[in-house]
Structure formats: C-alpha cells, structure tokens
Design brief:
353 residues; mainly alpha
C-alpha cells in the first residue's frame, strides 16, 4: 500500500490559507464597523446638506448608520454561529431526544430548536421526520415552536441594537415559551388531530444515524462562509425594508402616539400587539429595526417583544404550511397556546423592565 505523503503539506497550506483569510476579513470588519457612524453623519448632513435635528435628516442618518451596521453584525456573528454548528450532529441530537423522558426531551428539543436555523418553510419535512422517529408530539411541537421563534438573525440584531441583556432575555423567554407550550400541547393528547398520512409515510431505512462526518478546519470555514453568504443574501432586502420603515418611524412618528398605544399604561397593548402580529409576515431581519424604532418612540419593551415574537412564531404563511400535516383543530390550539405564552411574557417584561 502506497501512501501519498504530498497531500499532507497541501492540506496544511490550505488550512493556513483559510485562517489567513479569516484574519484578514476580521481586520476589515473591525475597520469598517468603526467608520460607520461618522460616514453616516457625513452622508446625511455633509453630502446631502440636511439640517441637524430635522426629521428627514434624522431618518436618513438612522438609515445610513443601521444598514451597514446590521449587515456587518449579521455577517460576522452568523459566520461564528455557522462555524459552531459544524460541530453539531443533528442526527445524534434527534436520537438523544428519542431516548429521554418528556421533561428532558422538551428541554433538549427547545435547545436544538434554538441553535438550528430552520424556519417555517422547513416545518413540514421536519415534522414528518420527527413523527417517523417516534418522538412524542409534544416534544416535536416544542422544536417547531422554538426553531422559528429563536432566530440567530434576530439574536444578532438584538445584540447590535439593544445589547446582550435584551438579546439574552429574548433567548431565555423564547426557549421557555417553546418548552412550556410543547409540554402543554403534549399533555393534551392531540395526536388524533395530525393528518393520517403523516403516520403512513415509511422512514428511509438507509439512513445511518451513527454516521459521523469528519471535517477539516478549511472545510468548516468554507461551509460557514457559504452559509453566511446564503443567509445574508436571503435577509438583505428584509434588512433594507425594515430599516427604511424604522427610519420613517424614527424621524416622523410622534412619540406620544406610539406611547399611548404600546406603552406600559395601556393594559390592553400586549394582547392587541400580539393579535396584530399574527397575520403579519416578516423575516426577523425586517421586524427588529421596526421594533427598535417603536421603542425609541415610547413603546414598552414587553409589548414590542411580544409583537416581534408573534410576527416570527405565528405568521400566517407558517400556519398555511403546517395545515398540510395538522388538522384545523390542532392549528387553532397551537396558535392559542403560543399566543397566550407570548402575552404572559410581554406582561412579565413590562413589569420587571
């Protein structure tokens, strides 16, 4: 048996080249991030000669600053998160969930949902796959709730706009909503409201759940870069659109108007915001700049977060997609339980913040 020793230096050179590119990109990221604010001010007040404090000037300065800032934050953090995800074996996680009890299974499903970038378009195949694996319905629904609700894009943008504390509160509250809602739905024994064909689909026998893929660092970096480009490309126009709306609210909407509707003093603001959010549909990248502008104008944190969560977790398109595998009765219960959990979370945030 002859061993080709030349491949080892080539592999080492590839690894070094990959890390050099990462270091160069990180340096460029830091430089760009630090010149955004003065560049935004120059564009709004220098190049366009708008007056400081004017509504149009404030709106455009907000837009020029937030667009590159959020795109840089997204690209940097999504790359790091994607790199970490290359170490997660999703098939092994699913196998572990199968073997645990209901409580631990719900917690694991919530954690798995929080760290995986699945959205409503992935709901049906994921649901079928979990049912095929024999995972209890409550645990499956915990994952389906948590995965779109806890978005890495939303998490990164919350860090950039509000800081770590608010982003962490979002992460904890979203995970808790998924766990509690899944536990309640599981206890209600709703299997009869799952479309019958889901149980009739035969799982593919040729899938080896113990198969472990070995990746080099250069391969992990390459995959992370590809994932970063894909995610940023998908959310790019949502970011532009969301920040444009947020800039308009920031510059032109009177503070008292929003404070009266979404402030702490309006007890009905949380449920009304959730009801408004349910029929809407937006990518997290589009809704968070709007939430930021609402907060700047006097909306309370709990109400704004409840609105955001209802848009992300209970969007009309997701319910339409889930109708393929769930009967209307289960979809209605699904919406009711999650909406109630989000409303309670909104009230809790308004009380403590």
């Amino acid at each position: 048996m002859q061993i080709d020793l030349t491949k080892f230096p080539r592999q080492k050179n590839t690894e070094l080249r990959s890390w050099a590119l990462v270091a160069l990109a990180a340096a460029a990221w830091i430089v760009l991030y630090n010149i955004i604010e003065p560049l935004a001010d120059w564009l709004a007040y220098g190049l366009l000669a708008l007056e400081h404090g004017s509504r149009l000037g404030e709106s455009l300065a907000f837009f020029f600053y937030d667009v590159p800032k959020l795109l840089l934050l997204l690209s940097g953090m999504i790359f790091v998160i994607s790199l970490l995800q290359t170490f997660i074996d999703t098939q092994k996680v699913r196998t572990l969930v199968e073997k645990r009890g209901e409580g631990i299974g719900n917690a694991m499903a919530a954690f798995f949902g929080a760290v995986t970038p699945f959205c409503s378009c992935s709901s049906v195949p994921l649901f079928i796959g979990f049912v095929q694996a024999g995972i209890p319905l409550g645990i499956t629904l915990t994952f389906l709730i948590t995965s779109p609700l806890i978005s890495e894009v939303a998490f990164v943008m919350l860090i950039g706009m509000f800081g770590w504390k608010i982003a962490l509160l979002y992460l904890i509250s979203g995970t808790t909503i998924g766990m509690i809602s899944g536990f309640i739905l599981g206890r209600m024994k709703l299997e009869r409201y799952v479309e019958g064909f889901v149980y009739d689909i035969k799982p593919r026998a040729n899938i080896d759940l113990n198969l472990e893929e070995k990746l080099t660092w250069s391969e992990r970096i390459s995959r992370s870069w590809d994932s970063t480009k894909e995610i940023v490309r998908k959310v790019f126009w949502f970011v532009i659109f969301g920040i444009a709306i947020g800039a308009g609210i920031h510059g032109f909407v009177p503070e008292n108007a929003l404070a009266g509707i979404m402030g702490k003093d309006a007890w009905w603001s949380v449920p009304v915001s959730v009801l408004i959010g349910i029929p809407l549909y937006s990518n997290p990248a589009g809704i968070i700049p709007i939430v930021s502008a609402l907060l700047d104008k006097g909306a309370s944190l709990g109400t704004a977060l409840a609105f955001m969560m209802s848009v992300i977790a209970l969007s009309l398109p997701e319910m339409i997609i889930l109708r393929r595998v769930l009967k209307p009765q289960l979809i209605a219960i699904f919406i009711g339980v999650i909406a109630a959990a989000i409303i309670l979370t909104g009230y809790m945030f308004n009380l403590v913040m």
